[in-house]
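Priority: medium. Attachment 1 of 2:
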């Protein structure tokens, strides 16, 4: 046999340096024309080693995680109905749901305030925006997180009693989740706009679109959303910021039943035109499906599986399977991305919305590798999207059995965020999201990527350790 090269050939190959932590060290090496691979890692926060030891040393912890993630990934949510929130969620007049963890009016962000003003106008509780704002400041409305009622809402996520909801049911575990109908893009309530065109569109959705969709869904029968999402992923969606294929597939399923409706032809045409022209229409159904799956994993003692990530425009919050309904919160960050027109970071509100439930269930930012075109919407390059998905495998418990990524040789998306892995590695979940304007009434100003504040996972881990 020939002699082995000295030091395994180390001196005869180009060196590759792996850098983590302080950027200045990597930059110094790069200035010397050496290849540097940067690794997003940070040491666990002080004291976390004791919490990690307590949780990981629990003999029942691994089995608890296995049970929780198995329940999440075995859920099979179906779209089964469309009904007003007062019927399906029991919302009373003057009660409103919102995205994210609990918050009061005095801490509410601009887009959340704008959406609440619009909801007050829609429900007939005020005649002008000024009246609505004054009434809300005096506590005239009861505010509650969507998650507390088995619902989710995109961006501001405001739901009033008259708004129509997509009803999704999981026949495997028996859970139900709801989400409002998607309004489309531009100036819409979920981004905090409340002008006359916003209220007029919502009234049309309540009077025409909602009843038509109800009749179509009931005529169609339960629609398997996991099967639809699996197909959409292989057609280039990631099911958060890109829903082009999923929306088209949903419309294909429901169009014959919409056309068969006993309704004026012009109403059916309006509904088909609206849904067909709204590439994000499926987002809300996908969010309800993700909520159904995540809720199936709740309440497993000892499990560190994340079952909710949500933002209200001020706070970012997570809930964990083994700690009940408690929220662990930190300041919501401003997404890093692309801005529309002349808008810039100064115009952006901190992250907002329940739509991170998609990442919680293994979609969205966790499936960026399935949607190379998304980088044109949120910024970055295709290799970065693939790298982001690969990085999420480091902090998740499993791979989704149905949602598979062609570019990764049909590997399942990373699913089941584990608080112990997030704290141990310092790798934070990646979320792709829309960016709302800071001021009420502005609407969407861009789209990008955002990460949660690290403390929410450390706090959740600490609570899990104390249990």
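Attachment 2 of 2:
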């Amino acid at each position: 046999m020939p002699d082995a090269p000295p030091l395994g050939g180390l001196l005869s190959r180009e060196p590759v340096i792996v850098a983590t932590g302080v950027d200045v060290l990597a930059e110094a090496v790069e200035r010397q024309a050496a290849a540097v691979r940067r690794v997003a890692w940070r040491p666990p926060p002080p004291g976390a080693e004791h919490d990690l030891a307590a949780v990981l040393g629990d003999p029942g912890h691994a089995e608890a995680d296995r049970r929780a993630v198995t329940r999440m990934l075995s859920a099979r949510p179906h779209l089964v109905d469309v009904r007003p929130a007062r019927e399906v969620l029991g919302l009373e007049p003057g009660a409103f749901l919102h995205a994210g963890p609990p918050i009061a009016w005095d801490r509410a962000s601009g887009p959340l305030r704008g959406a609440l003003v619009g909801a007050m106008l829609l429900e007939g509780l005020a005649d002008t925006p000024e009246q609505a704002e004054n009434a809300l400041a005096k506590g005239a409305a009861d505010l509650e997180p969507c998650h507390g009622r088995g619902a989710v809402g995109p961006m501001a996520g405001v739901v009033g009693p008259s708004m129509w909801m997509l009803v999704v049911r999981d026949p495997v575990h028996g859970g139900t989740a709801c989400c409002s109908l998607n309004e489309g893009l531009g100036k819409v309530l979920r981004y905090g706009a409340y002008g006359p065109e916003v209220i007029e569109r919502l009234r049309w959705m309540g009077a025409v679109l909602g009843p038509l969709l109800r009749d179509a869904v009931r005529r169609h029968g339960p629609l398997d959303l996991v099967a639809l999402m699996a197909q959409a992923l292989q057609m280039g969606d990631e099911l958060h910021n890109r829903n082009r294929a999923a929306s088209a597939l949903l419309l294909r399923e429901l169009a014959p039943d919409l056309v068969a409706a006993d309704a004026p032809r012009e109403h059916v045409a309006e509904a088909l035109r609206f849904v067909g022209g709204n590439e994000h229409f499926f987002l809300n159904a996908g969010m309800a499906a993700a909520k159904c799956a995540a809720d199936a994993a709740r309440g497993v003692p000892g499990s560190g599986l994340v079952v909710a990530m949500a933002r209200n425009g001020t706070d970012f919050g997570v809930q964990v399977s083994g700690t009940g309904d408690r929220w662990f919160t930190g300041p919501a960050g401003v997404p890093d991305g692309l801005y529309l027109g002349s808008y810039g970071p100064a115009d952006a509100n901190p992250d907002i919305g329940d739509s991170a439930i998609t990442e919680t269930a293994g979609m969205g930012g966790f499936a960026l590798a399935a949607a190379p075109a998304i980088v044109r919407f949120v910024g970055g390059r295709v290799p970065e999207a693939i790298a982001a998905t690969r990085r999420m495998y480091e902090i998740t418990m499993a791979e989704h059995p149905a949602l598979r990524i062609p570019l990764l040789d049909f590997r399942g998306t990373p699913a089941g965020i584990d608080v112990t892995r997030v704290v141990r590695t310092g790798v934070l979940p990646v979320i792709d999201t829309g960016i709302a304007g800071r001021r009420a009434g502005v609407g969407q100003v861009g789209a990008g990527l955002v990460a949660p504040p690290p403390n929410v996972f450390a706090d959740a881990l600490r609570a899990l350790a104390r249990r």
